C-alpha cells in the first residue's frame, strides 16, 4: 500500500505491506535508487513484521534534494521512524542503505532491534570514473551491478526507475558513500546483524562482507550464489529466506 508522510516539510513516499504488527522492518535502498529495489521483499512472508520500504528524500516519489553525507541520511531515517511512531525496528539497507544502517546502529542503537546489511561495507570508496559518469547521467549499474548469469529482462525491470531520481541526487549519494568510513568503529556495533552478499558482487565484493562479519560481534553472513550487487532482485527467494531465518 502506497503511503506518504511529511518530514522537514517534504512529502516522503513509502510502501507498507501487511497490517501493523508488533515488529517493523524498514528497507533502505542504495545510491540513486528507489523503493522498487525491495519489490520482492515486500511480498515476502515475515511473520509478526510490518514491511516498509521508502523512497529516501529526493529519490523516486519523495520530494527534496537528497543529501551528500551518510550522517544526514541517518538523521532522516530517525525522523522517519519517529514520524511513524515505530517500535521494535529492524533496518535492512542495501549498498548506501547499508552504510546508513551501520552508521545508524552506532548513533542511535536504542532505536533498533536488529540490522541487515546487503551489498555494502564499512568503507565505500567510489571510483572517480563512476562519479564523473554519474554526473553525465550514465547508469553504471547495468554493467557492474549484476551477475553475468542474470537475465537481461530482469535487469531492465530492476533499472526501470533509474530516471525517477535526478542525476545530481545520485551524484551526491556517491559522494556520501565516498566519504563513508567506519573501519575503525564497526566493532562497536552491538546489535544482531545479518550480512548478505552476492557471490558475483563486483561493487562490494565478498571481502567487504567478511570484514563486517569478522568485526560485528553478533553477526552472521550469507553468500547468495549466482547473484551480483543486486542480490535482492537477482535471487529474491534466497535473499528472502536468509532474512526470514535471521528474523526468526
Automatic annotation (TrEMBL):
Pfam families: Abhydrolase_6 (PF12697). GO terms for molecular function: hydrolase activity. Residues 25-241 form the AB hydrolase-1 domain. Keywords: Hydrolase. GO terms for cellular component: membrane. Gene3D superfamilies: alpha/beta hydrolase. The keyword Protein biosynthesis does not apply. It comes from the Bacteria. This is Pimeloyl-ACP methyl ester carboxylesterase.
Amino acid at each position: 500500500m502506497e503511503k506518504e508522510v511529511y518530514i522537514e516539510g517534504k512529502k516522503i513516499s513509502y510502501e507498507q505491506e501487511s497490517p501493523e504488527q508488533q515488529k517493523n522492518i524498514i528497507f533502505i535502498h542504495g545510491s540513486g535508487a528507489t523503493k522498487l529495489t525491495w519489490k520482492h521483499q515486500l511480498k515476502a512472508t515475515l511473520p509478526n513484521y510490518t514491511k516498509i520500504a521508502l523512497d529516501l528524500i529526493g529519490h523516486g516519489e519523495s520530494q527534496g534534494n537528497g543529501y551528500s553525507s551518510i550522517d544526514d541520511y541517518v538523521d532522516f531515517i530517525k525522523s522517519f521512524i519517529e514520524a511513524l511512531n515505530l517500535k521494535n525496528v529492524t533496518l535492512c539497507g542495501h549498498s548506501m542503505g547499508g552504510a546508513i544502517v551501520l552508521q545508524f546502529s552506532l548513533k542511535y542503537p536504542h532505536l533498533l532491534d536488529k540490522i541487515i546489511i546487503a551489498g555494502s561495507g564499512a568503507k565505500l570508496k567510489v571510483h572517480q570514473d563512476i562519479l564523473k559518469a554519474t554526473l553525465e547521467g550514465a547508469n553504471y549499474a547495468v554493467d557492474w551491478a549484476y551477475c553475468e548469469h542474470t537475465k537481461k529482462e530482469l535487469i531492465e525491470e530492476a533499472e526501470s526507475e533509474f530516471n525517477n531520481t535526478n542525476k545530481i541526487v545520485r551524484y551526491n549519494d556517491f559522494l556520501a558513500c565516498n566519504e563513508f568510513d567506519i573501519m575503525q568503529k564497526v566493532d562497536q556495533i552491538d546489535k544482531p546483524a545479518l550480512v548478505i552478499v552476492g557471490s558475483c558482487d563486483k561493487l562490494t565484493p565478498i571481502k567487504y562482507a567478511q570484514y563486517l562479519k569478522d568485526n560485528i560481534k553478533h553477526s552472521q553472513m550469507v553468500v547468495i550464489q549466482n547473484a551480483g550487487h543486486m542480490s535482492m532482485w537477482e535471487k529474491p527467494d534466497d535473499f528472502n529466506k536468509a532474512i526470514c531465518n535471521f528474523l526468526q
